[in-house]
Amino acid sequence: MAFDDSLVKDVLKHADIVKVISAYLPVIRKGKDYLAKCPFHDDTNPSMHISPELQIFKCFVCGTSGNAIGFVIKYEHLSFKEAVKKVAEICDYHDPRLDDIHQTKVVDPKRGPLVKCLHDLTVYYQYALNSPEGKTGLDYFNSRHLDADLRSKFLLGYAFKDGKALGYAFKDGKATIRFLEEKGHSLKTIEDAGLASSTTGTYTDRNAGRVIFPIIDANGDLC
Ligand SMILES: [Zn+2]
Fold this sequence. Notes:
Elements: H1 5-14, H2 17-22, E1 28-30, E2 33-36, E3 48-51, E4 56-59, E5 65-66, H3 68-76, H4 80-90, H5 111-129, H6 135-143, H7 148-153, E6 157-158, H8 174-182, H9 187-192, E7 196-197, E8 204-205, E9 211-212
Antiparallel strand pairs: 1-2, 2-3, 3-4, 4-5, 6-9, 7-8
Bound molecules: zinc ion.
Protein backbone atom coordinates (compact mmCIF):
# COMPACT_ATOMS: atom_id res chain seq x y z
CA MET A 1 0.00 0.00 0.00
CA ALA A 2 1.32 3.46 -0.88
CA PHE A 3 2.11 5.62 2.10
CA ASP A 4 -0.48 8.29 2.68
CA ASP A 5 0.99 11.80 2.95
CA SER A 6 -2.13 13.03 4.69
CA LEU A 7 -1.54 10.39 7.37
CA VAL A 8 1.93 11.86 8.04
CA LYS A 9 0.40 15.34 8.27
CA ASP A 10 -2.32 14.10 10.65
CA VAL A 11 0.22 12.35 12.87
CA LEU A 12 2.42 15.46 13.02
CA LYS A 13 -0.62 17.64 13.73
CA HIS A 14 -1.45 15.51 16.77
CA ALA A 15 2.18 15.01 17.82
CA ASP A 16 3.99 16.86 20.57
CA ILE A 17 7.74 16.79 20.00
CA VAL A 18 8.45 17.42 23.69
CA LYS A 19 6.40 14.36 24.61
CA VAL A 20 8.13 12.27 21.93
CA ILE A 21 11.68 13.20 22.96
CA SER A 22 10.72 12.89 26.66
CA ALA A 23 9.83 9.26 25.96
CA TYR A 24 13.55 8.66 25.31
CA LEU A 25 15.48 11.34 27.23
CA PRO A 26 15.20 13.57 30.29
CA VAL A 27 14.03 16.94 29.06
CA ILE A 28 14.13 20.22 31.00
CA ARG A 29 12.14 23.37 30.40
CA LYS A 30 13.89 26.64 29.66
CA GLY A 31 11.61 29.56 28.89
CA LYS A 32 9.28 28.58 26.09
CA ASP A 33 11.67 25.91 24.83
CA TYR A 34 13.05 22.68 26.25
CA LEU A 35 16.59 21.31 26.50
CA ALA A 36 18.04 17.80 26.50
CA LYS A 37 21.48 16.23 26.32
CA CYS A 38 21.95 15.43 22.66
CA PRO A 39 22.02 11.66 22.03
CA PHE A 40 23.68 12.11 18.63
CA HIS A 41 27.06 13.27 19.91
CA ASP A 42 28.99 12.92 23.16
CA ASP A 43 27.13 15.74 24.89
CA THR A 44 28.07 17.02 28.34
CA ASN A 45 25.73 20.02 28.44
CA PRO A 46 22.15 19.91 27.27
CA SER A 47 22.88 21.18 23.75
CA MET A 48 19.70 19.99 22.10
CA HIS A 49 16.96 22.62 21.92
CA ILE A 50 13.36 21.54 21.46
CA SER A 51 10.78 24.05 20.29
CA PRO A 52 7.15 23.10 21.02
CA GLU A 53 6.11 26.13 19.00
CA LEU A 54 7.91 25.03 15.82
CA GLN A 55 7.70 21.29 16.66
CA ILE A 56 11.39 20.79 15.85
CA PHE A 57 14.60 19.92 17.68
CA LYS A 58 18.10 21.13 16.93
CA CYS A 59 21.47 20.37 18.50
CA PHE A 60 23.65 23.45 18.49
CA VAL A 61 26.84 21.38 18.75
CA CYS A 62 26.50 18.58 16.18
CA GLY A 63 23.79 20.26 14.10
CA THR A 64 21.35 17.32 14.14
CA SER A 65 17.83 18.61 13.70
CA GLY A 66 14.37 17.63 12.56
CA ASN A 67 10.79 17.05 13.60
CA ALA A 68 9.36 14.36 15.89
CA ILE A 69 9.46 11.71 13.15
CA GLY A 70 13.05 12.61 12.28
CA PHE A 71 14.07 12.27 15.92
CA VAL A 72 12.60 8.76 16.20
CA ILE A 73 14.20 7.66 12.90
CA LYS A 74 17.61 8.80 14.13
CA TYR A 75 17.26 7.61 17.72
CA GLU A 76 15.68 4.22 17.08
CA HIS A 77 17.12 3.59 13.59
CA LEU A 78 13.61 2.96 12.29
CA SER A 79 12.27 3.33 8.79
CA PHE A 80 10.18 6.43 8.04
CA LYS A 81 6.90 4.48 8.25
CA GLU A 82 7.83 2.77 11.51
CA ALA A 83 8.77 6.14 12.99
CA VAL A 84 5.42 7.66 11.97
CA LYS A 85 3.67 4.81 13.77
CA LYS A 86 5.89 5.20 16.83
CA VAL A 87 5.25 8.95 17.09
CA ALA A 88 1.50 8.29 16.88
CA GLU A 89 1.77 5.67 19.65
CA ILE A 90 3.71 7.99 21.97
CA CYS A 91 1.18 10.77 21.38
CA ASP A 92 -1.87 8.49 21.74
CA TYR A 93 -3.05 9.26 18.22
CA HIS A 94 -5.15 6.44 16.81
CA ASP A 95 -5.80 6.03 13.12
CA PRO A 96 -6.77 2.80 11.32
CA ARG A 97 -4.35 3.64 8.50
CA LEU A 98 -1.51 3.10 10.97
CA ASP A 99 -2.52 -0.55 11.42
CA ASP A 100 -1.11 -1.33 7.98
CA ILE A 101 2.38 -0.42 9.15
CA HIS A 102 4.29 -3.35 10.56
CA GLN A 103 7.50 -3.24 12.52
CA THR A 104 9.59 -4.58 9.69
CA LYS A 105 12.15 -2.85 7.58
CA VAL A 106 10.57 -1.52 4.42
CA VAL A 107 12.78 -2.52 1.55
CA ASP A 108 12.85 -0.11 -1.35
CA PRO A 109 13.89 -2.13 -4.42
CA LYS A 110 15.87 0.86 -5.70
CA ARG A 111 17.79 1.22 -2.45
CA GLY A 112 20.25 -1.67 -2.87
CA PRO A 113 21.62 -0.57 -6.27
CA LEU A 114 21.67 3.04 -5.06
CA VAL A 115 23.70 2.29 -1.93
CA LYS A 116 26.11 0.16 -3.96
CA CYS A 117 26.48 2.94 -6.52
CA LEU A 118 27.19 5.50 -3.79
CA HIS A 119 29.71 3.13 -2.22
CA ASP A 120 31.61 2.74 -5.52
CA LEU A 121 31.40 6.47 -6.05
CA THR A 122 32.89 7.21 -2.63
CA VAL A 123 35.83 4.87 -3.27
CA TYR A 124 36.31 6.56 -6.65
CA TYR A 125 36.26 10.05 -5.11
CA GLN A 126 38.76 8.97 -2.42
CA TYR A 127 41.05 7.61 -5.15
CA ALA A 128 40.68 10.84 -7.12
CA LEU A 129 41.65 12.92 -4.09
CA ASN A 130 44.99 11.14 -3.91
CA SER A 131 45.69 11.38 -7.63
CA PRO A 132 47.60 14.30 -9.22
CA GLU A 133 44.29 15.83 -10.35
CA GLY A 134 43.04 15.77 -6.76
CA LYS A 135 45.81 18.05 -5.53
CA THR A 136 43.45 21.05 -5.44
CA GLY A 137 41.14 19.11 -3.13
CA LEU A 138 43.99 17.82 -1.00
CA ASP A 139 45.38 21.35 -0.60
CA TYR A 140 41.92 22.51 0.48
CA PHE A 141 41.55 19.76 3.10
CA ASN A 142 45.08 20.40 4.39
CA SER A 143 44.29 24.11 4.71
CA ARG A 144 41.28 23.11 6.86
CA HIS A 145 43.52 20.83 8.99
CA LEU A 146 41.70 17.71 7.80
CA ASP A 147 44.60 15.25 7.97
CA ALA A 148 44.78 11.79 6.39
CA ASP A 149 43.08 10.12 9.40
CA LEU A 150 40.12 12.51 9.31
CA ARG A 151 39.91 12.33 5.52
CA SER A 152 39.72 8.55 5.74
CA LYS A 153 37.28 8.55 8.71
CA PHE A 154 34.83 10.88 6.95
CA LEU A 155 35.39 9.32 3.49
CA LEU A 156 36.38 12.69 2.05
CA GLY A 157 37.16 12.82 -1.63
CA TYR A 158 37.44 14.81 -4.79
CA ALA A 159 35.49 14.53 -8.04
CA PHE A 160 37.57 14.23 -11.20
CA LYS A 161 36.98 16.63 -14.03
CA ASP A 162 38.71 14.47 -16.62
CA GLY A 163 39.89 11.26 -14.91
CA LYS A 164 43.30 11.11 -16.57
CA ALA A 165 44.59 9.13 -13.60
CA LEU A 166 42.22 6.33 -14.60
CA GLY A 167 43.33 6.40 -18.21
CA TYR A 168 40.22 8.28 -19.29
CA ALA A 169 40.34 11.31 -21.53
CA PHE A 170 36.98 12.84 -20.75
CA LYS A 171 36.09 16.37 -19.85
CA ASP A 172 33.65 18.02 -17.47
CA GLY A 173 32.88 15.08 -15.21
CA LYS A 174 32.07 12.46 -17.85
CA ALA A 175 34.81 10.22 -16.38
CA THR A 176 32.70 9.59 -13.27
CA ILE A 177 29.77 8.39 -15.34
CA ARG A 178 32.02 6.10 -17.42
CA PHE A 179 33.57 4.66 -14.25
CA LEU A 180 30.17 3.89 -12.70
CA GLU A 181 28.86 2.36 -15.92
CA GLU A 182 31.93 0.13 -16.09
CA LYS A 183 31.09 -0.94 -12.54
CA GLY A 184 27.69 -2.07 -13.83
CA HIS A 185 25.51 0.81 -12.61
CA SER A 186 22.71 1.93 -14.90
CA LEU A 187 22.28 5.56 -15.93
CA LYS A 188 18.95 5.45 -14.07
CA THR A 189 20.69 4.49 -10.81
CA ILE A 190 23.38 7.10 -11.40
CA GLU A 191 20.69 9.71 -11.93
CA ASP A 192 18.69 8.49 -8.89
CA ALA A 193 21.87 8.88 -6.84
CA GLY A 194 21.56 12.59 -7.63
CA LEU A 195 25.03 13.00 -9.04
CA ALA A 196 24.44 13.15 -12.77
CA SER A 197 22.51 15.50 -14.94
CA SER A 198 21.86 15.16 -18.63
CA THR A 199 20.71 18.67 -19.50
CA THR A 200 22.57 18.54 -22.82
CA GLY A 201 21.78 14.91 -23.51
CA THR A 202 25.15 13.81 -22.14
CA TYR A 203 25.48 12.67 -18.56
CA THR A 204 28.03 14.54 -16.48
CA ASP A 205 29.01 14.43 -12.80
CA ARG A 206 27.55 17.54 -11.20
CA ASN A 207 30.29 17.37 -8.52
CA ALA A 208 33.17 17.53 -11.03
CA GLY A 209 36.06 19.62 -9.76
CA ARG A 210 34.70 19.79 -6.21
CA VAL A 211 35.75 18.31 -2.89
CA ILE A 212 33.35 15.70 -1.54
CA PHE A 213 31.91 15.27 1.97
CA PRO A 214 29.74 12.11 1.84
CA ILE A 215 26.65 11.96 4.06
CA ILE A 216 25.90 8.86 6.12
CA ASP A 217 22.33 8.19 7.28
CA ALA A 218 21.16 6.85 10.65
CA ASN A 219 21.56 3.27 9.38
CA GLY A 220 25.20 3.89 8.51
CA ASP A 221 24.44 3.85 4.77
CA LEU A 222 25.70 6.45 2.33
CA CYS A 223 22.89 8.72 1.24
ZN1 LIG B 1 24.36 16.88 19.07
